[in-house]
Specification:
The complex is a heterodimer of chains A (391) and B (238).
Chain A: E1 3-8, E2 13-17, E3 22-25, E4 35-36, H1 52-81, E5 86-91, E6 95-100, E7 106-111, H2 114-120, H3 130-144, E8 152-158, H4 162-175, E9 180-185, H5 194-198, H6 228-231, H7 243-247, H8 294-297, H9 305-315, E10 330-331, E11 334-335, H10 345-353, H11 355-358, H12 384-390
Parallel strand pairs in A: 8-9
Antiparallel strand pairs in A: 1-2, 1-4, 2-3, 5-6, 5-8, 6-7, 10-11
Chain B: H1 2-15, H2 19-28, H3 30-41, H4 50-65, H5 73-94, H6 106-114, H7 121-144, H8 149-155, H9 160-175, H10 177-186, H11 191-198, H12 202-207, H13 209-219, H14 224-229
Helix pairs in contact in B: 1-2, 3-4, 3-5, 4-5, 8-13, 9-11, 9-13
The chains are: A alpha+beta (391), B mainly alpha (238).
Chain lengths: 391, 238
C-alpha cells in the first residue's frame, strides 16, 4: 500500500493511505508530499486501565456473576414453587395432611390413616387450590356417610408467618360451606373441651409402697395404713449365708438373758432352709445378735476362766495336730463344744496370740545328754506335764 | 528528584494530546534518545541513521501510551526504544540478501543506472511538489475548521466497520454536491443528513467528525492529486 506523507514532525510523520486512512509513522527523513511504501507504523496503544490480569479475570468474574444470578433465580423459583412452606391437617374421620407452597398452592396430599388413604385413592390435586381440595375431600366423606353437614371438621394449620396463617384460616372458614370449620394452629395446645371438664375426676389409685424400697427413704410409706407388722422397729435382714444361726439363739447358754425386744410379739420361727422372703408381710427372722448388741446382752455373766481355757484347747485340733491328753479339758466326760456365737474370730486370734497369759512359762531344765535342741523359751508352748515326762 | 519525575509526567500527559508539546518533549529529550540508540548500535548515532529516527518515533509512542501505572517514564521509554530498534533490526535482517537501489556506494549507483526506468525523475519531483502544495493548502483549509493533520490521524477510524460507515457517508456527500456546498459554507459537517442519507449510525459519524472534515475537503474541488490517491477506495462515490 502506498502512503502520502501529509505532515512531518521530529519524532513522527502523518501519512495518508490509499483507503483514505490517516496514520502515524516513523519519520524516516520524509518530506511532505512524498509517497512511501513500507513505513514503520505506530502500534495501537492498549486502552488504559485494562491490564492483562484484569482482562483475564473479568470474564471469569462475569461468568461467576451470571452463575450466581441464575442460581439465585433458580433457588427463588424453587423456594416459591416447590418448597413446602405450610402444612394443613384436615382432621375428621380421616386425617389428611396437605402440603402447601409459598403461594398457598397444594403441593401434595398425604393420608394419615386407612380411611384417608381410601379417600385419596385416585384423587389428583394438580392445579387445585387448597380450599378446592378440602371441599372435594369433604364431599367424598359426606358421600360415604362419615360426615354430615352439621359436623365440625378441625383444620390445623402450620404456616411460616402469622399473615399466611390468618389468610389460610380466613379462606378455610369462608370457602368451606359443607361443614362447620374449626381452624387451629398446628402444634398449639388444644383448648379444654367442656364435656371433658365436667367429667368426674377419677381419684388416683393409691400408690402401693414398693416393698423393695427402703421405708426410711420413702416418705409416702409412713402415712399409709397403720400396719402392726410395719410398726415394728426395723430390723436388719438376716444374713443369707448363715440362716441357721438366726434360729439358734433360743438354745444359747445365755438364753435366759432377755434381749432387747420390740413391743410387738416376735415373729414365728422360720425354717432356716427357706430363703428369706422379701416384700411379704412376714416378720423377718430374728437376726443373730449383733456384735454391737453383745455387750448389752451379756452384761451380768462374764465368762469363767475355765470356759476360756476350753475354748483355747478346742481350737488346737483345728490345726490338724493331734492334741495331747488334756484332762482338764473334759469335765464329766462331756466335751465342751465350742460355741460359735460366743466365739468371735477376732477374739480367737487374740487368745491364740496370747498363750503366755493362760500357760505361764515354766523354768526349762538343762538338757542332760544334749538330746533336746536348744529352743527359744518363748517359742515353747508345751504343757508342763509333757515336759516333766520327758525329763 | 521527585519533582523532576512529576515534571516529566506532567509534560508527557500534556504531549499526549498536544502535538507541539510532543515535539518540544522529543527535542528536550534528544540526548536521552541518542543515548539509548547508542547503546543499541554500540556507537554514537549519526543524524542520518534510520535507527535514530526509529528511536525518536519509539519515544513518541512511549509518550502516547504511557500511564502512571507503568512506572517511571524514562525506564518505560527506554524499553520502548530498545524494543522498536530490535524489531527494525530483525526486519532488516530478513531483507539482508537484497540489494538496495538507493545505496550511496559507487558500485551500487552503477546498478541503479543500468535498470531501465520509465519513471521520469523530473516529473516525480514536480508531482511531489504539487502534492506538497495541495497538502499545505488542505492543511490551511483544515485550520479554518479547527482541525490539524495530527488530529485527523488521531481521529481516523481503526475498525473496518467504522471505516466503511465513514466511506458510505463520504460517498453520499460526493453524490450530493449541495451537501458539500453547505459544508464549505457553514464549515460544519452535516452529520444528520449524512447519517440519514447513508443510513449509518449518527454517533459513529460524530465520533470521527475531524476525519470527515479532512476527507470531505479532499473530495471538494481543488485537491485532484490527493483525491486521485484515495480514488481507488472511494471509487464508488468519489
Amino acid at each position: 500500500m502506498k502512503y502520502v506523507v501529509t505532515e512531518c514532525h521530529d519524532g513522527y510523520a502523518v501519512l495518508m493511505d490509499e483507503g483514505a486512512g490517516f496514520v502515524h509513522a516513523a519519520n524516516l527523513h520524509y518530506t511532505v508530499g512524498q509517497t512511501v511504501t513500507n513505513p514503520i507504523l505506530m502500534q495501537e496503544a492498549e486502552p488504559a486501565g485494562k491490564s492483562i490480569t484484569v482482562r483475564r479475570i473479568l470474564p471469569v468474574l462475569a461468568a461467576a456473576a451470571c452463575l450466581a444470578v441464575v442460581s439465585a433465580a433458580g433457588f427463588s423459583y424453587y423456594s416459591g414453587k416447590y418448597k413446602t412452606h405450610s402444612v394443613v391437617v384436615m382432621s375428621s374421620d380421616a386425617n389428611i395432611k396437605m402440603y402447601l407452597n409459598k403461594q398457598g398452592e397444594v403441593l401434595s396430599v398425604q393420608a394419615e390413616d386407612d380411611y384417608a388413604e381410601e379417600i385419596l385413592r385416585d384423587y389428583d390435586t394438580k392445579n387445585k387450590s387448597k380450599t378446592d381440595v378440602a371441599n372435594d375431600l369433604l364431599a367424598k366423606q359426606i358421600e360415604s356417610g362419615h360426615l354430615t353437614s352439621g359436623d365440625t371438621v378441625d383444620f390445623y394449620i402450620s404456616a411460616d408467618t402469622n399473615a399466611a396463617y390468618d389468610t389460610y384460616k380466613t379462606e378455610f372458614e369462608t370457602e368451606i360451606q359443607q361443614v362447620r370449620v374449626s381452624v387451629q394452629e398446628l402444634g398449639a395446645p388444644e383448648p379444654p373441651k367442656p364435656d371433658k371438664a365436667e367429667a368426674p375426676v377419677k381419684p388416683e389409685a393409691p400408690v402401693k409402697p414398693d416393698p423393695k424400697a427402703d421405708p426410711k427413704n420413702d416418705p409416702k410409706a409412713e402415712p399409709a395404713k397403720p400396719d402392726p407388722a410395719k410398726d415394728q422397729p426395723l430390723q436388719p435382714e438376716a444374713p443369707k449365708e448363715k440362716p441357721a444361726q438366726a434360729v439358734k439363739p433360743a438354745e444359747k447358754p445365755w438364753k435366759n438373758v432377755t434381749p432387747v425386744q420390740p413391743a410387738n410379739p416376735p415373729a414365728p420361727p422360720v425354717n432356716p432352709k427357706d430363703p428369706p422372703t422379701i416384700g411379704k408381710e412376714q416378720t423377718p427372722p430374728v437376726p443373730p445378735t449383733e456384735p454391737e448388741e453383745k455387750p448389752e446382752l451379756l452384761p451380768d455373766e462374764p465368762k469363767k476362766p475355765e470356759e476360756i481355757e476350753k475354748t483355747d484347747t478346742e481350737e488346737k485340733p483345728e490345726d490338724g495336730i493331734p492334741a495331747p491328753e488334756k484332762p482338764e479339758e473334759q469335765e464329766g466326760g462331756k466335751p465342751v463344744l465350742p460355741d460359735p456365737d460366743t466365739e468371735q474370730p477376732g477374739e480367737k486370734d487374740k487368745e491364740e496370740k496370747k498363750p503366755a497369759e493362760v500357760h505361764p512359762p515354766l523354768p526349762r531344765p538343762e538338757p542332760a545328754n544334749g538330746l533336746l535342741p536348744k529352743q527359744d523359751p518363748l517359742q515353747i508352748s508345751e504343757p508342763p506335764e509333757l515336759f516333766a515326762v520327758l525329763v | 528528584m521527585k519533582s523532576d519525575s512529576h515534571q516529566i509526567i506532567a509534560q508527557v500527559y500534556k504531549a499526549k494530546t498536544d502535538g507541539r508539546a510532543a515535539d518540544e518533549l522529543i527535542s528536550s529529550y534528544m540526548p536521552f534518545i541518542k543515548s539509548e540508540t547508542a547503546k543499541f548500535l554500540k556507537r554514537p548515532p549519526d543524524p542520518s541513521d534510520d535507527e535514530l529516527s526509529i528511536a525518536m518515533f519509539a519515544f513518541y509512542e512511549a509518550v502516547r501510551s504511557y500511564t502512571k501505572s507503568r512506572g517511571a517514564f524514562l525506564n518505560f521509554a527506554a524499553l520502548q526504544i530498545r524494543s522498536r530498534l530490535i524489531d527494525n533490526y530483525r526486519k532488516e535482517k530478513r531483507n539482508k540478501g537484497q540489494i538496495s537501489l538507493d545505496s550511496s556506494d559507487e558500485e551500487q549507483a552503477d546498478l541503479l543506472e543500468t535498470i531501465p526506468d520509465g519513471h521520469d525523475e523530473y516529473e516525480a519531483t514536480e508531482m511531489r511538489e504539487a502534492t506538497r502544495q495541495e497538502i499545505e493548502e488542505l492543511t490551511a483549509q483544515m485550520t479554518d475548521f479547527g482541525v490539524s493533520m495530527t488530529d485527523v490521524a488521531d481521529n481516523s477510524p481503526r475498525q473496518s466497520r467504522t471505516m466503511e460507515s465513514c466511506r458510505r457517508a463520504i460517498a453520499y456527500a460526493r453524490s450530493h454536491p449541495d451537501i458539500l456546498e453547505d459544508f464549505l459554507r457553514t464549515k460544519r459537517v452535516p452529520i444528520a443528513r449524512l447519517a440519514e442519507g447513508a443510513a449509518v449510525d449518527r454517533k459513529s459519524l460524530e465520533r470521527h467528525r475531524r476525519y470527515l472534515v479532512a476527507v470531505l475537503l479532499i473530495c471538494t474541488n481543488g485537491y485532484e492529486i490527493l483525491r486521485g490517491h484515495i480514488m481507488q477506495v472511494l471509487k464508488g462515490g468519489c
